[in-house]
Every structure is written in C-alpha cells, then in structure tokens.
C-alpha cells in the first residue's frame, strides 16, 4: 500500500462498506502508513521548506466523516492525479498576497500601513511603493501604468506565476501523514468537549515551492524569491496557523548547513572570548596595572611566546623587575623564551 493513492483511500475506499467501523479504522491506518513523495517541478524559481511540529493542515474546509468514532472528521486536500497532499498555487499566492495589505474585494486591510512598513524593511527600500509592488506581483498590473486612471494589465507571459507546492522529501523515511485531535468547546466552555480526529502532514516533511517570477522595476526575480521565503517562514501556511500549525523552515543544502555551523561556532567562540574578557575585568577591578601583570604571569603554565608578548605589552608599568624575574624563573619552558625575556628585562633596569 506504500504507493497507493492516498486521496482515493481517504475519500472512496474508506466508505466502501458504508458506516463500517472495521473498514474505516483499517483504511485510516493504511493512510497513516504511507511514505510517498512527488517529483520536483524543476521550475524556474523554487525553494524547499520543511514542516515543523505540530505539522501542516490543508483542505480542512472539505467535508469528510460520518458519525462513526473511527472516522476522520475534517477534510484534507489531495492532488487528484497523484493522491498526494499538495498546497495549491492559489493558496500560496493568497497567503503571500495577504502579507502586502491589498484590498480583498471591497474589504480594506486594517493593518495595511504596518504590512507596508514590514515589506519595506524586508526589501531594505524605505521609499518602496508597496501597493504598486503588490499589484505588479499578484494582479499583473503594469507598474508603468498604475499612475494613470486606467491601469494596463501585463501579458500572461510577463506575469509572475505561482505553482503548487509539492511534497518532495520526508525526513528519516517517516510517515507522510499523522493523526491529531481538536476539542472545540463552542459556546459551552464548561461542558466536556468531544475530541474530533483529523489528519495532518507530519513534521519534517519537505515541500518544494515553485514559481516563474519576472524582474520588475521594484525587484528582481531573485529578490522576490528571497522575500517569499521569509514571509512563508514568518507566517506559515494552511489552516490553524494561529495555534502553531503550518510553520515552515527553510531547508539548507549540506554545504549551506556546514557554513551555518561554522558561523555558529565562530559566533560562540567570539562570545566565549567576550565573556572571558568581561570576567577578567571584574576580577581585576581595583588592581593596579602592575598587579594585573603579576596575576597574568602567574597564570602561565610555562614560558612561551605569549609570556614574552605580555611582558613587552606591560613594560612601561613594571615596578619591580626582580619580582617578574622570579615568576619567570619559576616556570618551565624552552630556554630560548627564558633568554629572550631576561634579555628584555635587562634593558628595563
């Protein structure tokens, strides 16, 4: 059953025997075992995002389910041909469009100004006309004609195209789908709710988002792609995003992962050095510069080039050369460093 059409199982096979507990339970179990993926579209622009916990819910508006306790009570969207979950291009476009504050029908977006400011910040363009930018992307309005009373529409070949997002990978060969429950209280919060079973795309499933984007006076195709990645990561997609579903994470290549790990290690090293320096400053608070030098020389395990540098760094404030000599003589180390330090201290007498 690993290559079965999940959509057919979910909407047809499940009810082959009508309201039958055994058939419904068996089919749900089969649906949750499947670990199939789709092919890449190889579109002009594409990127991969991976679902985070608790997963992704798509097609919840479709009707599904009998009164049977074994049944799934909320619908789900599957591609008719492959039977696999996918996020329709119209859904991707609609989600991204909502981030720009465009009017929907005659309904204005009350957060329009805040959304415009956010897009300007992401694009690093303080004077960007976000309204015109959005109409150029989502409505195909020619940016050169927007100042006129009658806007000119772009040719279909010159518009940005939004394709469906396909499942192209599953981490560690896990199941593509998993079950979950919601417990709606409706208008009686004090009564015990009835849990409703539904299915979702599991965490760690990779979707490939595909586009055919065009350069415009506002942004290049690559800049639009980078913007879309940020918006999808920031706001998620699908149903119930307000309670954590539909959250996505940009999927890095192995090389990009290594680079990110190197950057993280470098930042951690810099932070450790900074913390060490701050701790040293606290410990040395109230000490004279010479006392700080003595303390640092005593901390050396052996005579080395670092000790030579330290003595030269503090040479102008050395008050007791003999005390420094005694510390140097008490340390192990190569004779060349010993001789170099002693010769330098002789020049200070």
Describe the fold and architecture:
- This protein is an alpha+beta fold and 349 residues long.
- It folds into three domains: 6-251, no CATH class; 252-283; 286-349, no CATH class.
- Helices cover 39% and strands 13% of the residues.
- The chain is built from eleven helices and ten strands.
- Strands 1, 2, 3, 4, 7 and 8 form a six-stranded antiparallel sheet that branches. Strands 5-6 form a two-stranded antiparallel ribbon. The protein has a two-stranded parallel ribbon with strand order 9-10.
- The mean pLDDT is 89.
Based on CA atoms alone, the radius of gyration comes out at: 32 Å
Percentage of residues assigned to helices: 25-40%
Low-confidence segments: none
Order of helices and strands: HHEEHHHEEEEEHEHHEHHEH
Ends distance: 89 Å
Number of strands: 10
Question: Mind summarizing the main beta sheet?
Answer: 6 strands, antiparallel
Assembly type: single chain
Number of domain modules: 3
Strand content is 5-15%
Mean pLDDT: 89
Record keyword descriptors for this entry.
alpha+beta; six-stranded antiparallel beta sheet; 39% helix; 349 residues; 3 domains; elongated; 10 strands; two-stranded antiparallel ribbon
What's this, in brief?
This protein is an alpha+beta fold. It contains eleven helices and ten strands. It has three domains: 6-251, no CATH class; 252-283; 286-349, no CATH class.
Topology:
Blueprint: H1 6-11, H2 21-31, E1 45-51, E2 86-87, H3 89-97, H4 112-123, H5 130-139, E3 161-162, E4 165-170, E5 177-182, E6 196-201, E7 205-212, H6 221-235, E8 248-250, H7 254-283, H8 289-299, E9 302-303, H9 305-313, H10 321-329, E10 332-333, H11 335-348
Parallel strand pairs: 9-10
Antiparallel strand pairs: 1-7, 1-8, 2-4, 3-7, 4-7, 5-6
